């Protein structure tokens, strides 16, 4: 246990020594580069006007150029601030004024019934069982892989169904599968195996 505590103290002391060395090194580099601690302070007073120096005279000021460049120009700040405030006063309010609603919607004309005459009336069968209706819907709208998943329909039967549908025709009941070239027994197989 004593050995563990000694190791911890050794790590802490070595960390403090390395931090002290790093701070000393940073301070040495900073002071050798000519940057003083006062150069980082920004004053809000504008720079004092300096007398003009002729070409033959040497400047007598001992101020560092870094300090001069970091001084804050108060007039520039005032100009920018007043420009921002003027823009804020000119902007419209964030929420637009309410607009009046239209009294009534524009009436749209419904399509004429003559366009419905282009399509033949589909025969709706109400005597079919829900199982047969589901199978007919799947046969009418399913893809090749969907049709092959049905028990009783293979790849050739699926191709025949898709060829029949490609002509623009649809099945109204399972008995219509005969129109696509399938055997009459397919209906019973579909009903018995796909529950």
TrEMBL record:
Gene3D superfamilies: AF1531-like domain. InterPro entries: RuvA_2-like. The chain crosses the membrane at residues 6-26. Residues 46-65, 95-126 are annotated as: Disordered. Residues 107-117 have a biased composition (Low complexity). It comes from the Eukaryota. Keywords: Membrane, Transmembrane, Transmembrane helix. This is Helix-hairpin-helix domain-containing protein.
């Amino acid at each position: 246990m004593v050995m563990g505590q000694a190791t911890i103290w050794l790590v802490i002391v070595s960390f403090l020594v390395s931090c002290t060395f790093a701070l000393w090194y940073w301070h040495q580099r900073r002071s050798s580069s000519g940057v003083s601690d006062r150069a980082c302070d920004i004053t809000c007073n504008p720079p004092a006007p300096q007398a003009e120096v002729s070409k033959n005279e040497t400047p007598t000021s001992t101020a560092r150029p870094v300090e001069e460049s970091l001084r804050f120009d108060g007039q520039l700040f005032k100009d920018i601030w007043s420009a921002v405030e003027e823009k804020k006063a000119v902007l419209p309010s964030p929420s637009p004024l309410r607009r009046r609603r239209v009294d009534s919607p524009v009436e749209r004309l419904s399509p004429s019934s003559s366009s419905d005459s282009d399509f033949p009336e589909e025969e709706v069968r109400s005597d079919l069982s829900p199982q047969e209706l589901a199978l007919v819907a799947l046969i009418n709208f399913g893809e090749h892989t969907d049709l092959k998943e049905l028990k009783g329909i293979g790849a050739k039967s699926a191709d025949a169904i898709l060829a029949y549908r490609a002509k623009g025709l649809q099945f109204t009941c399972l008995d219509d599968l005969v129109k696509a070239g399938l055997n009459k027994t397919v209906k019973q197989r579909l009903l018995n195996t796909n529950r």
